[in-house]
Specification:
With 917 residues, the protein is of the alpha/beta class. It has 38 helices and 25 strands.
Length: 917
C-alpha cells in the first residue's frame, strides 16, 4: 500500500531531528513480500528508499525526498522465548512493548534509550542504541542473537539458519568475497586493528561498525553486525532475536554535588569502581535549570550554584538485601569526596523520581522554553573518561564564544558520553553561519580528545561529512566498499552515514514557523504517538502539530493550493478524530496536551447557532439529560429503527452533528436526584454522581456506578450528601471538548457555586463516580480561583482508601479483565483500581495492548471508526481467553469496550458492591 496524498507526505516528513525532507511517496509494507516488491520497484525506477518506524531519531537518518517506507503499521510481532531469556521482535514494535512482555520474567532488552516509550526495535538496531545504564556491553550490537535481513537486491537471509553463511555465498558471492577480503586486509595491519579497538572501546555510532571485522570471522556474522548501526543504508532488518538482560528492580539514588566540574571528573574513576549502574553528569548550568523545576529534589534547595557540578548516581540490584548491602558498603563516599551537599541514598520511589526529574527534566526545561521559531538540537559525543573534564570545559567555552547562552551539558559520565543542547534557528544566514563555525570547532575539539562525534544517536546526516576525519582515509575507504558491496545501486537511504560533501549537514534544515503556544513548544520527538488512540486511523499528536506548522508555512510563502489541500483533509483527520483524551501529555517531554490545541480549533470553528444551543444546554442541563435518557430508552426498544434513523440523519447533517445509535447502547439511566443519601447533617462526603449515569443506564447485571457507590458507603456507615441541584450540574467536559467555551463558563459558574456550598467551602471532599468526570471537575476547579479549596476525589480512590478495609468479601470473582482509562491514568489511580480488582479476584488481567478506547463522551458515536481502530489491539488480546467479569471505571469507556469486544463491561464498583453483599 502506498500514498502520495499531500497531508500524508507532510505528516511523515517530520521526525525528532532538525532536518526536513518531504517524501514524494509513502509506502506501507505489511509483509516481507511487500517489502521486496518495494525494493524491486526502487531498483527499476532508480528511486531511493528510506525506512522509518518510530521517527525518534535525532540525526536526520529517517528522512527522504523519495520513497519513505513506513514500517510501523506492519511488522508488529513479538515472541518471547523460554523464561524470557530471549525475545524475537519485528522492527515496528516499540522497546516498551517488548519490555512489557519480558517484565513478568524479570527481564528486559539490553538497550535502554530514553525514548523507549516510542522508539522501535527497528530503530534500536539501525542506530545501535544504548542508553543510561547499558553502556557498550548491553547495546544492540552486543545483545542481538540473529536477524532476518533483506539486501537491496532482495536477497533475504535468516542468520539463525545453520547454513546462513553458505546462503550468503550462494546468493551474494561478490559481497561475501569482499567482506572476506577486507577482513584479511584489516588483520594484516596491526595499526588498523589497534585503531578499530580504540574507536570502539567507547560508545561510538559513527559510520559503520568496523569492530565487526575484529569480533567475527564468517562473512554472515560480519555482515549482520555491520547492519547493526547502519541506519538502513545496508539492508532492511525484518526481524531480530535478542538475548534479554535481568531487570534490576531495587534501586537507591543519590545526588553527589561537587564544588567544581574538575573535582567531579577527578572523582569519576573511583566512582566507576563502586559499581554504580548509572553516573549521570550535570554541569553548573544544568543545576541552575534543575533548581527552577517544580519538582526539584531537596538537595538543590539551599545550593547557591557557582562552578558546581553533580553526579546523579544509582545502585541497581535484583534484591533489596543486595541493594542495602551496597548502600552500606558505600557509606564512606561523603567522607572520601568533598561534597557541597550532604549525600543521601533514597529508595523511596517519589524521592527517587524527584532526583531523576532533575536530570530528565533538563531537556523539557530548556527545549520547552526556547524562543519561537528555533529548533532544539540535542547532540551527543563520547570521549575517554580521562578527557571528560577538559572536553566539558572547552565545550562551555564554545557555548560562550558563539552565544549559546542556554546550553547545558549532561550525560552518562561513566561512559564518557555527554549530551549538550543547543537552541538554534535556521531561517537566517547569520544563525546558520554561527552553527557551521560552532560545529567545525566542536568536531576538532572532540576528535582532538580522541573521542567519537556520535555515541548513541547515530551518524545520520548531521555527522556524515565528518566520518572520514574521525576514522582516517583507510578505514573510511573500507566503509565505502561495504556500502558499495551491499547497495551497489545506491538505493538505500543515500546521504546518510557517509557523505563526501563537507557541507551536506547544512542542507535541508528544518525551519519552524511561529503558530501558537501548544505548537511552538513541540520538538517533534514523537513520544506522544504510541499512546494516541487515532494513530492507526488518521493522525498522531505530533502530526497534528507539524501540519499546523506546514499550514502556517504555506500562508507565509503565499501558497494557497497547499493550504487549501491541507485544510480540507485536516478537519476530519486532525480535528474530528482527535479523542482529546490528553494521553499525549503524559508522554510529552515539553508538557503539550494536543487536545488543548484541538479544543481551541473546535472553539474557533464553533458557529453562533451551535454556541447558542450549547449555552442553552448549560442552563437547562437537567431537562436535556433526562430527555437524552428517555430517547435512549425508546431507541433501546426499537434498535433497528433507531440505528436506521440516525444513519439517515447523518447523511444530511454530517457525522459531527448526529451520533450513530448502535445495539450495545443501553436504555437510559435513572435520575441522579433519585439516589438515596443521608443528607447534609454530619456528611463525610459530597457525592457528585456523573450525569453520564443518567444518560446511559446500567447493564443487565449491576446497579450502575452511582447506586453502587451509595450502597458501599451505606454498608460501612459513611454518610454522604448529594447536592440538591445535582440534575443541573456537570463537570463541563462536553462543552470544553467540543470548544463551546461560553457554555462551559456557564456550567462552571453554577457547578462551582453549588459545590462550594455543599462541601462547606472545601471542608468535605467531593467524590465523583466516573474517572473522566473526576478529571473534568478537577480541571474546572483548577481554572476557578474561587474554588481552590475544593477537594475532588474519584470514587475508586475513595473506596480503595476508606471503604475497602471495612468490607467483607462474600462472593469472590473467579477471573477479571480490567480496562483502565485514560482519565484514571492521568488521575494516578490505576494502582487503586488494581488494589480493588485484586481484592475481588486472584486472577486479574490487564491487557498489554491497552489503549484509550476513544469513545470520548460521544466521539465514539460520532465516529465509530475511531473507537474501532483504538481498541483493535486490546480487543484481539482479550479474545484469546474468557473472564467472569470485564470491568472499567467510566461508563462511556465501558460502552466502548463492550462494542469492541462484544462482551459487557461494567464499572468496577458494581462488581465490588455485588461481591460484598
Amino acid at each position: 500500500m502506498s500514498t502520495i496524498r499531500l497531508i500524508d507526505r507532510l505528516a511523515k516528513a517530520h521526525d525528532a531531528s532538525h532536518y526536513l525532507l518531504v517524501p514524494d511517496e509513502i509506502a506501507t509494507p505489511r509483509t516481507l513480500d511487500d517489502l521486496r516488491s518495494i525494493l524491486r520497484q526502487s531498483r527499476e525506477t532508480k528511486r531511493p528508499v528510506t525506512f522509518r518506524s518510530g521517527g525518534t531519531s535525532l540525526s536526520g537518518q529517517g528522512l527522504t525526498n523519495s520513497i519513505l517506507v513506513d514500517i510501523r503499521p506492519g511488522f508488529q510481532r513479538i515472541d518471547v522465548g523460554e523464561d524470557g531469556l530471549t525475545v524475537r521482535a519485528q522492527p515496528g514494535v516499540t522497546v516498551r512493548s517488548v519490555n512489557m512482555r519480558l517484565a513478568r520474567f524479570g527481564r528486559k532488552l539490553g538497550p535502554d534509550p530514553a525514548s523507549e516509550i516510542a522508539c522501535t526495535v527497528g530503530g534500536v538496531i539501525a542506530n545501535n542504541s544504548s542508553g543510561m545504564a547499558c553502556g557498550t556491553e548491553q547495546n544492540a550490537y552486543r545483545t542481538i542473537r540473529s536477524m532476518i535481513f533483506v539486501l537491496a537486491s532482495g536477497t533475504t537471509i535468516n542468520t539463525e539458519d545453520p547454513d546462513a553463511d553458505e546462503q550468503l555465498w550462494r546468493a551474494e558471492p561478490e559481497l561475501a568475497a569482499g567482506l572476506t577480503e577486507m577482513w584479511h586486509e584489516i588483520h594484516a595491519d596491526p595499526h588498523l586493528v589497534s585503531e578499530i579497538r580504540r574507536q570502539y572501546a567507547m560508545k561510538n555510532t559513527m559510520g559503520y561498525g568496523l569492530n565487526s571485522f575484529i569480533d567475527f570471522v564468517r562473512p554472515i556474522d560480519i555482515l549482520s553486525h555491520l547492519i547493526v548501526g547502519s541506519e538502513g543504508t545496508l539492508a532492511f532488518v525484518a526481524e531480530a532475536s535478542f538475548n534479554s538482560v535481568a531487570t534490576l528492580s531495587h534501586s537507591a539514588t543519590g545526588l553527589m554535588v561537587f564544588p567544581t566540574l574538575e573535582a567531579a571528573t577527578e572523582a569519576l574513576p573511583s566512582l566507576v569502581q563502586r559499581r554504580f549502574a548509572t553516573i549521570e553528569l550535570m554541569d553548573a548550568r544544568s543545576l541552575r535549570v534543575a533548581q527552577a523545576l517544580k519538582d526539584r529534589p531537596a538537595e538543590l534547595d539551599e545550593l547557591v550554584v557557582d562552578r558546581h557540578a553533580a553526579f546523579l548516581v544509582e545502585f541497581q540490584y535484583p534484591t533489596r538485601d543486595e541493594l542495602l548491602a551496597a548502600v552500606r558498603a558505600n557509606e564512606d563516599l561523603e567522607g572520601t569526596h568533598k561534597l557541597a551537599v550532604p549525600l543521601t541514598f533514597h529508595t523511596d520511589r517519589q524521592l527517587r523520581e524527584r532526583l531523576w526529574h532533575s536530570r530528565k527534566g533538563l531537556y523539557t526545561a530548556v527545549a520547552g522554553a526556547r524562543p519561537p521559531g528555533t529548533s532544539a538540537l540535542l547532540e551527543d559525543i563520547a570521549v575517554p573518561v580521562e578527557a571528560l573534564y577538559q572536553t566539558c570545559k572547552d565545550l562551555t567555552a564554545l557555548f560562550d564564544a558563539y552565544g549559546y547562552e542556554d546550553s547545558v551539558i549532561f550525560g552518562h559520565a561513566k561512559d564518557g558520553n555527554i549530551h549538550f543542547l543547543l537552541n538554534e534557528r535556521f531561517d537566517d544566514h547569520a544563525s546558520l553561519n554561527r552553527y557551521k563555525l560552532f560545529t567545525e570547532e566542536m568536531v576538532s575539539l572532540v576528535l582532538g580528545a580522541g573521542g567519537s562525534l556520535k555515541a548513541e544517536h547515530g551518524t545520520g546526516r548531521i555527522m556524515a561529512p565528518f566520518v572520514r576525519r574521525q576514522f582516517g582515509d583507510t578505514l573510511y575507504g573500507i566503509m565505502l566498499r561495504v556500502k558499495q558491496l551491499c547497495d551497489p545501486e545506491g538505493i538505500l537511504n543515500p546521504g546518510v552515514v557517509l557523505s563526501d560533501d563537507p557541507d551536506s549537514y547544512l542542507n535541508n534544515l528544518k525551519v519552524s514557523p511561529t503558530v501558537d503556544s501548544e505548537v511552538d513548544r513541540c520538538v517533534e520527538c514523537g513520544y506522544c504517538e504510541p499512546s494516541c488512540p487515532s494513530r492507526k486511523l488518521t493522525l498522531t499528536p505530533r502530526q497534528r502539530i507539524v501540519l499546523r506548522r506546514e499550514m502556517q508555512s504555506a500562508r507565509e510563502r503565499n501558497d494557497p493550493a497547499t493550504l487549501r489541500a491541507l485544510e480540507a483533509d485536516y478537519e476530519y483527520e486532525g480535528v474530528q478524530t482527535c479523542a482529546v483524551d490528553g494521553m499525549c501529555s503524559v508522554a510529552c517531554p515539553v508538557d503539550i496536551n494536543t487536545g488543548d490545541l484541538v479544543r481551541k480549533l473546535r472553539a474557533e470553528a464553533s458557529h453562533l447557532v451551535g454556541e447558542h444551543s450549547w449555552q442553552l444546554a448549560a442552563r437547562n442541563w437537567g431537562t436535556l439529560s433526562k430527555a437524552g435518557s428517555s430517547a435512549l430508552s425508546v431507541a433501546h426498544a426499537v434498535p433497528t429503527l433507531a440505528s436506521a434513523a440516525t444513519s439517515l440523519l447523518r447523511v444530511f447533517t454530517g457525522h459531527e452533528q448526529v451520533p450513530l445509535y448502535s445495539k450495545e447502547l443501553p436504555k437510559g439511566g435513572k435520575s441522579r436526584a433519585s439516589l438515596k443519601h443521608t443528607g447534609a447533617k454530619d456528611a463525610e462526603v459530597v457525592f457528585f454522581p456523573a450525569c453520564v449515569g443518567t444518560m446511559f443506564g446500567a447493564g443487565a447485571k449491576g446497579l450502575g456506578s452511582s447506586a453502587s457507590f451509595v450502597q458501599l458507603c451505606e454498608r460501612v456507615g459513611i454518610r454522604i450528601v448529594i447536592p440538591s441541584a445535582i440534575e443541573a450540574l456537570c463537570c463541563g467536559t462536553p462543552w470544553k471538548s467540543k470548544g463551546h467555551l461560553e457554555g462551559y463558563r456557564t456550567m462552571t459558574a453554577q457547578t462551582v457555586s453549588t459545590l462550594l456550598r455543599a462541601s462547606d467551602h472545601g471542608r468535605i471532599p467531593i467524590v465523583v463516580d466516573a474517572s473522566s468526570c473526576t478529571e473534568g471537575l478537577r480541571e474546572m476547579v483548577k481554572q476557578s480561583p474561587s474554588a481552590s479549596e475544593l477537594r475532588v476525589l474519584d470514587a475508586i480512590e475513595f473506596v480503595a482508601d476508606r471503604v475497602l478495609p471495612e468490607l467483607r468479601l462474600t462472593r469472590p470473582v473467579t477471573s477479571m479483565a480490567v480496562h483502565r482509562t485514560c482519565s484514571s491514568t492521568q488521575l494516578g489511580i490505576n494502582d487503586r483500581i488494581m488494589l480493588i480488582a485484586n481484592y475481588l479476584s486472584d486472577d486479574v488481567y490487564e491487557p498489554l495492548e491497552w489503549s484509550c478506547c476513544a469513545f470520548a463522551g460521544d466521539r465514539g458515536m460520532l465516529h465509530p471508526e475511531l473507537t474501532a481502530s483504538a481498541t483493535a489491539g486490546e480487543s484481539a488480546e482479550l479474545s484469546t481467553r474468557s473472564f467472569e467479569r470485564y470491568v472499567s471505571v467510566n461508563r462511556t469507556c465501558e460502552l466502548g469496550m463492550t462494542r469492541a469486544t462484544g462482551t459487557a463491561f461494567e464499572h468496577l464498583l458494581e462488581v465490588l458492591e455485588q461481591a460484598t453483599r
